[in-house]
Amino acid sequence: MTYSVFVPSPSHRAIGDGGESLAVTYFIKKGFEVIDQNVQYRFGEIDLVIKRDHVLYFIEVKYRRSLTYGRPEESVTFKKLRRIRLAVLRYLQDRGLQARSIQIDVLAILALPGQDVEYTWISPAI
Hints:
It is built from two helices and five strands. By secondary structure, the chain is α+β, with helices and mostly antiparallel strands. It has one domain (12-122): Trna Endonuclease, Chain: A, domain 1. Strand 4 and strand 5 form a beta hairpin.
């Protein structure tokens, strides 16, 4: 039996890191405190954990530099949101946090060459 696993190339990871860096700056400018980044579990990843007014926000960051594969927010599937939800529950459990005020959002970032960066914040995503 053959299995194929997607392993991001260094350049792919660098692009993702660039998008997450833009997201961090975006949320800090909006008054959020960044709590955690790139929290990984075997079944999913949380890109950003931010906080404001006693609410924890779990952010999925989608970053694109072209529209070849569609807008960034179009790549967030039900399956992806389900994996994020599982990761959020594990995150809360691992840190002994109650399921207090939490929200799962998506920040789509589109950075087309020669244009201003476009941010689309989908809140709440679930």
